[in-house]
Amino acid sequence: MSQSSQVDPAKLAAARAAIALVEDGMKLGLGTGSTASVMVRELAARVAAEGLNLRCAATSAATAELAESLGLRIETLDEIGWLDLTIDGADEVDPQLHLIKGGGAAHLREKVVAAASDRMVVIADPSKVVETLGAFPLPVEVLAFGFETTRKLIRRALDTLELGERDVLQRLKGSDPVVTDEGNLILDLHLMQIPDPVALARALSAIPGVVEHGLFLGMCNLAIIGREDGTVVELARDAEIDADMLAHEGE
Ligand code: 5RP
Fold it and tell me: What's the pTM?
């Protein structure tokens, strides 16, 4: 059964275009978040209609639960071994197809799955397309052990990169810390702009208490941007981005 008219048409258009890339026999990675959920529903509908034989790995417990509830069989990444295609959402996409991910606190598993895929396709609505990453606070998954020390080391790294004086806030749900599927905590780095994502990624990865940051650099092969009118725009790396496609500050 396909999805109702209550689904955001831009997300639905992107999800449908990505699902059209799926072929019988493929090994798939399934992303996390609201756009990825639309995609999982579309995938389940196609599998039911066409009897596709797929092997799927999920990037979060939430996605695994949704997929299984819709009749998709989920296996672990290690059972499958290597994936043909991962389809996931993103919080920001820049013209190089660098991404910020982790708005759903799942970027660690998402990165592990994307790294084990021949192709990563991102699906998003136009609000996610930006010229420069950083308006969306960068999620960093950190160990609970030495949490405040890790926060200090992150602040020090931001100072070194002249990104200091920015909020580095623990993500909470209500008054409780958000705990990831791997049992870690999340710090959100409110940077406004990330002029050099490669340098920041390197600096964060060098901090021992950092488990994984939400910068996905050079991992995404294709971004499919759905629009309200049901059409999509496909962005390849370094493609010129239409000004209408860019998220505007303050929106
Ligand atoms: C989860 C993610 C999501 O893909 C990202 O937050 C986008 O989510 P949504 O489609 O709900 O906007 O990275 O960790």
Answer: 0.94
